[in-house]
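Task 17 of the worksheet. Students: predict the tertiary structure of the chain below and write it out as structure tokens. Keep your answer in the requested format; marks are given for formatting as well as content.
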Amino acid sequence: MTDTADPLADCQIRPAGPADALCLGVLAMQVFLDTYATDGIRPEIAREVLGTYTPATYEALLARPDVSILVAERRGHLLGFVQTTLGTGHALVTARAPAEVDRLYVQEPFTGRGLGRRLLHAAEADAADRGCDLVWLTPWVHNRRALHFYAREGYADRGPTWFEFEGERHENRLLALPLPRAARR
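Model answer:
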């Protein structure tokens, strides 16, 4: 519930810290399931979620100097986050200093209100400030909303790639955006 016309007017974007690990894990589980478990929960998806989105996983990620996690927070509640890893390469990425946007997750009630755009732009600025010349990511081919969002934000489709878990292969698209030279150190 909100008491303002714009429920995100008092939303802040800030770097995540160790105290955020629990909420990051739960929020990631929720968004992952909302996006990818559209036919319900099956053992493969359950194992992927419970193995990937634990608080311990986020504690470890937050301790890594090459990983940046920015959270969108309003009144002590996490609404979304963006996770970026510096120096991650891929065969479809030709850049001197790339950064991968591993996840951009926004809780469903807050989608379509500009929060994802704010998080993405904050991650791009952070990557540029850390010397990166390109950001890239790999949304699922059936996540049409994400594909349209990234196209609107200027990301170019570089081709297919695959997300694999539990012996399954799921097609993704690799999208990339060069970062402005002036923004880089």
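Marker's comment: Strands lie at 12-15, 67-74, 77-86, 98-106, 134-137, 156-165, 168-178. Residues 20 and 26 are 10 Å apart (CA to CA).
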